[in-house]
UniProtKB/TrEMBL annotation:
Any Pfam family hit: Oxidored_molyb
Domain Oxidoreductase molybdopterin-binding: 73-220
Family matches, as SUPFAM superfamilies: Oxidoreductase molybdopterin-binding domain
Gene3D superfamilies linked to this entry: Oxidoreductase, molybdopterin-binding domain
Domain of life: Bacteria
Protein name: Oxidoreductase
Lineage: Bacteria, Bacillati, Actinomycetota, Actinomycetes, Kitasatosporales
Length: 243
């Protein structure tokens, strides 16, 4: 992981909830109205992108059912040689992992639906990586720890889980998605994947895992999203649970 000053230099202007919901609304309209309006929507979004300094709409190509969001402007990619994932906070053994270090650890592959809180779903998506529980066990959790905070090398995004949630078998530090290395647009080279929760909990561009005494609100939770984001049981939505 780069140092604090490096991350600050890369930080873009955070995207407000009004902008985000406006773009999400346009995307939902395209899905609901069918291919004719979708083609018109693509043209509109292209025009918006030329005027949008945040880079948000540049990350919205529709590929395989996924939508792409960033809460800052363009995010600088990190290669295998300069990527680092730190584990710190209330642990006995703070650590820093390279991508090669993570690849050398036991890998778990799960196939699960991905559900976005904005409504779209991609079924049966394979993710593979290191169980977050294994990294936490290697670090040694200290007395008083109750939660885990995740930071990202975009310089703005963050998320949190309770310690019990973080230790689930379906929570991964993911290195592969759809049986390929996680691409930069999908949050690579390493992202979080929290299978039973809405996709905003699966932080992209993961760079830090910090064990904390309490749950700290993540980026979107400061704007009213639920901290416990179980699919179909939170955020006022009734989506079928992911499977």
């Amino acid at each position: 992981m780069g140092n604090v000053n490096d991350d600050a230099a890369q930080r873009g202007t955070p995207v407000g909830r009004r902008v985000m919901l406006g773009v999400i609304g346009l995307g939902a309209a395209g899905v609901a109205a069918g291919p004719v309006l979708s083609r018109a929507l693509d043209s509109v979004l292209s025009g918006v992108a030329r005027k949008d300094p945040t880079g948000l709409t540049d990350l919205l190509p529709n590929s395989g059912g996924f939508r792409y969001y960033s809460v800052t402007g363009p995010v600088e990619a990190r290669s295998a040689t300069d990527y680092r994932l730190t584990v710190d906070g209330l642990v006995d053994h703070p650590a820093s992992y390279t991508l090669a270090d993570l690849e050398a650890l036991p890998q778990t592959r799960i196939v699960h639906d991905v559900q976005c809180v904005t409504g779209w779903r991609v079924s049966a998506t394979p993710f593979q990586g290191v169980k977050l529980a294994d990294l936490l066990a290697a670090a040694g959790i200290q007395r008083g720890a109750a939660a885990v905070r995740f930071s990202c090398f975009d310089g703005s995004y963050s998320e949190s889980l309770t310690l019990d949630q973080a230790r689930r078998d379906d929570v991964l530090v993911a290195l592969r998605m759809q049986d390929r290395p996680v691409t930069h647009d999908h949050g690579g080279p390493v992202r979080l994947y929290v299978a039973p929760m809405y996709f905003y909990k699966s932080a992209k561009w993961l760079s830090g895992i910090t064990v904390t005494p309490t749950v700290q609100k993540g980026y979107w939770e400061h704007y009213g999203y639920d901290t416990d984001a179980w699919v179909g049981r939170s955020n006022g939505r009734d989506d079928a649970p992911t499977s």
